[in-house]
Amino acid sequence: MSAGEHDVSITADTLPGDLGSDDLVLLGWPVAHSRSPAMHNAAAAHLGLPLRYRTLAVAPEHLDEVIVDDKGTKMYVCS
After folding, report:
1. C-alpha to C-alpha distance for 67 and 11, rounded to whole angstroms
2. Cα separation values, 20 from 2, 4, 11, Å
3. What global pTM score does this model have?
4. What digits encode the pLDDT tens for the residues 22-75?
């Protein structure tokens, strides 16, 4: 992976503040190339489901802290 915005990992301190119970999240490193959000968001829209499938770039060394977030973020990890 080349240097740039895609090599900055999400940590527990930098989780997006707009994560909610309608978010399905794919954690990965790297993950920006994934086509999953486009496919799953299209399916949810077609079915009229209020879901948002997102990717979060999380490096392996930050995985535990992101999954076990002590700030009370309700994140449902899909993949």
Report:
1. 10
2. 31, 27, 17
3. 0.74
4. 888 898 999 999 999 999 999 999 999 999 999 999 999 988 888 876 666 656
2 compared with 57, residue with greater pLDDT: 57
How far apart CA 79 and CA 76 sit, in angstroms, is 9
* Cα angle, residue 42 at apex, residues 37 and 46 outer, rounded to 5°: 150
Q: Which residues contact 36 (CB under 8 A, 6 or more apart)?
A: 26, 53, 55, 79
Contact in structure between 35 and 52 (CB atoms under 8 Å): no
At a CB cut-off of 8 Å and minimum separation 6, what does 66 contact? 10, 11, 12, 15, 27, 56, 58
